[in-house]
Amino acid sequence: MDNTWWWLLGLVALLFGGMLLSAWRARQQLQTRLLMSWGQLPGRTRQDSEASLQEAYAAQRQLHPRGSTIDDLTWHDLNLMQVFQRVNLTESSVGAEALYAQMRGFYFGQPATDEKLIAFFAQNQPARMAVRTAFAHLGKVDHNQSQQYLLNADHHVLPGSWQFRVLGLLPLVGVALIFVVPLAGVLLMIASLLFNLVYYQLRRNALELELNAMRYLVQTIAAAHQLSGINTPRQAALKAAYAPLKQITRHAFVFRTHTGTELEVVMDYLGICFMLPFIAYNSVLQTLTAQRQAALTLWQELGQLEVAIAIANFRQASPVACQPTFTADAVEAQGLVHPLLKKPVANDLDWRQTALITGSNASGKSTYVKSVAINCVLAQTINTATASSFALAPGHVVTAMAVQDDITAGDSYFIAEIKAIQRVLKLAAQGQRVYGFIDEILKGTNTIERIAASASVVQWLSRTKARVMVATHDSELTEILKALVINWHFQETVTASGVTFDYQLHQGPATSHNAIALLSTMAYPQPIIQTAHDLVAAFEQTRTWPQVEQSK
């Protein structure tokens, strides 16, 4: 063997060694990332866009309807997408979509969590790492359409499947013909290959969404094969769901995950030359249609693996967390905190009737209301609360807090506000238990009608199974409704250097105000501040507003 061959062999060995080293480094980096991320609250990622998650959730709601759902207004009022991101320690879109769906709905008194599986992953690092590694290799693809395919697989079949098979066979016919009529065989092989390349590209442009969706779907089933070999409490169920779909994995070669290697490009062109993606596409859909229930079960099993890991991590990484208990009435908590705050102030809760919360601006009213509402959601969806202890009776959770006018619907702020509150009234009118959370009730109208209407709403709700928590600046409501509600407040301390807050919940209505004091800290002209104080003093003495005269 001359030197040229040795050089070629050396080059091949060097390239092969480089590929192996690169793969080893990638595996090591993945393992390090997975190890370092455990016990930490995850943040926002480039994947898992809310539009993609909502798309999958819309399909999943049809597959798995829940007793109660968190509507869009409540979801956005409570910044629950940010809460989801704090929980979302998932490595695949299958897991992220399952977690999102779980946090958007629940069964009353029965959180859809597998506590045995959660405890297993919390305590078993090798199994947890093996499962997370398998899902990491699957990865995340936004708008992957998997849920839609599971819902209506037969609606996505490509027409003319026999044409793809004929076109895929023509190059092979040309090869066979070479041995009989060489020139005709060569011409047929070259012509069919070129035609298939061009035809595939033309069809692929129109079917790119379907082919990308199929790639992720097939790779998910291939990942299920690997995951079914890991010893977990759900292993038997996973194997049973995977078995009827096993034949789909033979198409994993055609629909493999793209990594951009040279070998992959060569294999892609070989598949295109024989129309393998189109042929395999319909074959997979036929299996999914015939084994639809097994596919639905498989996706649910896969999703629950990652959901369990995410919940286990959230409980461990959160400064305080507990599993709630479900009672016949009331909401009680000790050491309750808001899950999104870096340095939250803990408060207790004993909520047995409609509550009015008064207090100064920035004193913590809205944050406290949101912390209670968020934990009512988390307790019923992922069986977790950010508190030392938490107990509640099962019920819907509805908010009217960050209301905005809707120009497209022609709704003013006040119309949008009364529509938001009406969601609570409708559920209460049906005799259902609903936890309503309202911030600055009916602030979009004049003072007299706001107080009258607000009092009427609270009075009506007090006769139902609704539990409502209202944050308000209208101190008049605390007196009007004192026989029907419990009054709580947050307070402040005003000093020469400014205003400070303790962010602690206190019993009774607020007795102090800080709006004018805040004007002073912001260096407003002294005449403005003095006039404001004089007007308040006059009103509190006579309960009527004096006429303001022209300043001298």
Automatic annotation (TrEMBL):
<feature type="transmembrane region" description="Helical">
    <location>
        <begin position="169"/>
        <end position="195"/>
    </location>
</feature>
<dbReference type="InterPro" id="IPR045076">
    <property type="entry name" value="MutS"/>
</dbReference>
<keyword id="KW-0067">ATP-binding</keyword>
<dbReference type="Pfam" id="PF00488">
    <property type="entry name" value="MutS_V"/>
</dbReference>
<dbReference type="InterPro" id="IPR027417">
    <property type="entry name" value="P-loop_NTPase"/>
</dbReference>
<protein>
    <submittedName>
        <fullName>DNA mismatch repair protein MutS</fullName>
    </submittedName>
</protein>
<feature type="transmembrane region" description="Helical">
    <location>
        <begin position="6"/>
        <end position="26"/>
    </location>
</feature>
<dbReference type="InterPro" id="IPR000432">
    <property type="entry name" value="DNA_mismatch_repair_MutS_C"/>
</dbReference>
<keyword id="KW-1133">Transmembrane helix</keyword>
<keyword id="KW-0812">Transmembrane</keyword>
<keyword id="KW-0472">Membrane</keyword>
<keyword id="KW-0547">Nucleotide-binding</keyword>
<feature type="domain" description="DNA mismatch repair proteins mutS family">
    <location>
        <begin position="352"/>
        <end position="537"/>
    </location>
</feature>
<keyword id="KW-0238">DNA-binding</keyword>
